[in-house]
Specification:
138 residues; alpha+beta; Immunoglobulin-like; 3-stranded antiparallel beta sheet; 2 helices; DUF4307; DUF4307 domain-containing protein; transmembrane helix; membrane; transmembrane
Length: 138
């Protein structure tokens, strides 16, 4: 005599009651997704460091207020990727950080693309600071 507890329960009945067992993702699919993600990350790093590099970089070196109507700025420019010249925008600020002088200057690089510029910038009132705002390759 068999008891009802020892009789095997059909698989479909258990699946209807508890749901079907989910299959684990295939190993090849996971490896493929990880490889794709790695290629995308490496491509992004390459794009940031090599392809999208600015053609011109600059760094302020110093400024000197020589009179209430002018300031002298000294800055370094580095031309990259075949750029032979650039236009740099300079500005002078007063104590309230209001622009009191603005000038665009043409910069031509030497053989290695580096140049140090010293420029006198006229101002409408006494400046307390001077700096390069931007440089754009030509």
């Amino acid at each position: 005599m068999t008891s009802p507890a020892t009789e095997p329960v059909p698989h479909d009945a258990l699946a209807d009651r508890y749901g079907r067992r989910r299959r684990a993702p295939r190993r090849g699919l996971v490896i493929g997704a990880l490889a794709t993600a790695a290629v995308l990350v490496l491509g992004f790093i390459f794009w940031i460091t090599v392809i999208d590099r600015d053609q011109v970089t600059w760094q302020d070196h110093s400024f000197s207020v020589t009179s209430p109507s002018e300031v002298v700025l000294t800055f370094d420019v580095q031309l990259h990727r075949g750029a032979t010249s650039a236009v740099c925008s300079l500005h002078a600020l007063n104590s309230l950080k209001t622009e009191v002088g603005l000038r665009d200057v043409e910069v031509a690089g030497d053989d290695d693309g580096r140049v140090r510029m010293t420029v006198t910038l006229p101002t409408s009132e006494e400046a307390t600071a001077g700096e390069v705002v931007s440089c754009v390759a030509r």
